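Inputs:
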Amino acid sequence: MPNSDRISKPTGRRMSLYLRVLHSRIDQANAAISSKELGAQTGVKDAQVRKDLACFGSLGRPGVGYGVSELHNQLRKAMGMDQTWKTVLVGTGNIGRALLAYPRFRNEGFDFAAAFDQDKKAVGKRISGLTIQSMDELKRTVKKSSALIGLIAVPPAAAATVAQMLVDAGIRGILNFAPVRLHLPQGVAVVNVDFTDALEQLAFEIRLVKADVKVVK
Amino acid sequence: MPNSDRISKPTGRRMSLYLRVLHSRIDQANAAISSKELGAQTGVKDAQVRKDLACFGSLGRPGVGYGVSELHNQLRKAMGMDQTWKTVLVGTGNIGRALLAYPRFRNEGFDFAAAFDQDKKAVGKRISGLTIQSMDELKRTVKKSSALIGLIAVPPAAAATVAQMLVDAGIRGILNFAPVRLHLPQGVAVVNVDFTDALEQLAFEIRLVKADVKVVK
DNA sequence: GATTGTGAAGAGCTTCACAGCT
DNA sequence: AGCTGTGAAGCTCTTCACAATC
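Outputs:
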């Protein structure tokens, strides 16, 4: 009996991990993989893996495991990876350019439809196959492209304004690289990627390890 | 009575947020800030803020709040931000170069001591004030610089090897940008930053929102 | 009156353990 | 024998609520 009331956030995060493992085994599509094996590859306990996968109903066969190909398809569908997500980028500085060039995005179904920059000197230049557009064109271009995802890679001071522009243009989710908490209306999702936060987190954990006699898990 | 048994990971993550708010108020160093205000700025409930801050003992004054300057100092110390962290970068592709140029790292106490690349054609070039070194020099340079943090910005296939080299050289923490789960000995901390994971997460949340009649928090 | 610090309740996530299937 | 699916137990983090303090 399916357990798909609602997929929790922790479960969603782990789904990405499982997906990565399955992706690396597409060549063995007909083979089976056990929850134990999936767990070992992702650092997740086997019982947890089974609980997570139970969201889709009973895909596994006792004594055997999960069909790689079948599970891969189900997971892709559940995570929304069975479609192409039109995506736009705002901010073509160092980070923005690196993101545009990042090869895995396209492979995973994220397709950049446009790139924007406030700097008039950047507008018109081509990077990674896109011509940088001015902010004035944002709303029209986004609507026309029906992009649902926006990446914000602008300085902190500009992030809030840009976020509002994206929302007004109909964007449904923002991947935010600016070190700022965005206030967005309900119905618009945000995921933050903050390099400084990440480094601080690391420094914090190093201190934990050094401070303790016993190492903290 | 202090509650500093052990600072949990969720608490640690929020500390970064508080720190950011306090940082933006250094000009009002003598003023006070309440848990409610700190919470509003960071999206955290006030009771949670107080619980988190109670780790340092009783810094707050009932009816008033927390001294901005005092709290800032305590937090910086607790998060290990009262020192300079010597840091090295491996991989000087698009992402690596963007990280080296990221201005906030230096501001927050992270100091790049060296950059390495496997590509012989890159070695010797200067980026952001550093001369790219070959991998052969990694161990010696890292030991000499006494760097504790390593950033991995290399292709997935190379990440595990690089991680091992960093650990052998005495690194205590790794910020990993490669989409790979690193297996490291106890005592070495890892924080992963995976752009594709983040985007997948976002796509997943957008789907949640669209699927539901009621919006999920 | 405003705000802290905190015990207790609540919610959510993880792990255990085992019946049941192949 | 091996493995799944899952109820129940265990654990951790969050929220509530209020006495104590300024």
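Remarks. Residues 87-197 of chain A form a domain with the Rossmann fold fold (CATH 3.40.50.720). Residues 8, 10-11, 45, 47-48, 51, 61-64 of chain A lie near DNA strand C (CB under 10 Å from a C1').
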